[in-house]
Amino acid sequence: MEIRQSKLTREWIIFSPERARRPMDFKKKEKKKKETPEYDENCPFCAGNEDKLIHSFIMETPGIGGNPWQTRVLPNKYPALVPDKNVTRGVEGIYLRMPAYGKHELIVEHPKHNICIGKMNLEGVKTVVETYWMRYNELLKDKRNMMVLIFQNHGSRAGASIIHPHSQIIATGMVPLLLRVHEEESQQYFDNLGRCVMCDILKFEESHKERLLLENDSFLSFVPYAAEVPYELWIVPKEHKASFGDISREEMTKFAAILHGVMNRLYNKLDDPDYNYIVISGTRYKAGEPHLHWYLKVRPRLTTRAGFEIGSGISINPSLPEKDAEYLMG
Ligand SMILES: [Zn+2]
Ligand SMILES: [Zn+2]
Questions:
Q1: What is the SS3 assignment for 148?
Q2: Tens digits of residue pLDDT in 52-86
Q3: How many structural domains does the chain have?
Q4: Shortest CA distance to 197 belongs to which of 285, 207, 205?
Q5: What pTM was computed for the model?
Q6: How far is the CA of 154 from the centre of ligand 1 (A)?
Q7: CA distance 44 to 260
Q8: Cα 215 to ligand 2 centre (Å)
């Protein structure tokens, strides 16, 4: 039993290994419903079902290995935010408010219905990453967009409502508190020590090794010291850059390779768990900052946040990060 503090948020995490179940128990009790078919005639995102799309797509990448296309980007049919608003704040009594401005796009990751990042080939993952990068930079051109967040919800526990492999991008007209707190913590660390906190975390994890997963020339993946949930993992670029939009072609290829490797391990070791992953990148005007360092966070959805976690903000993680890393790499 121990309590750890996250370097990035200064949040406390309680580790309670005796509450842990064997990794086997995290696997889904029943096997997947029935085998998902490669093509579903009712799915608007399957190749050949273009007549079911209500929007024309924003962009499309050329197909690989006989596919008619590889990725497609569409406006989300049920957007959380809408683009035809402004970002002007207003007040209502003691309250501050602003219109629901934002962009919400959906990235179809593959023409086939039953594939996911964990099963895709490397070329496929590379195209997904390139699509992220193109949309990220395109959305940042609009000065109203203060934050561009790329994420993937995989499985019903992660909030996914459609099976067809897809990611989403939301651009907002304000900076969320979570990211601001994150930035401020990193700023303070930098002001005190003159170093980027994530660069320090990278160095420590690389030399310490016990939470390491995969590594290549440009990226390191590991279970974070203060993981909030079992099998949380991060993919961090070795070169200090605040913005995902600033990575080179070479880094994109290396990022795809490690994402491919890590998601494949997660898929095989935990039997295709539900998860969310998020690209956490500097908000507008922060791209060149020496204290910010972009990364990707994967959060498997194996446990449920209960009253204590919700009330206190403190996570109770039944699984130790070192054990998680050992299991995933074993
Ligand atoms: Zn489909
Ligand atoms: Zn850094």
A1: strand
A2: 887 789 999 999 999 999 999 999 888 888 888 88
A3: 1
A4: 205
A5: 0.91
A6: 14
A7: 26
A8: 17
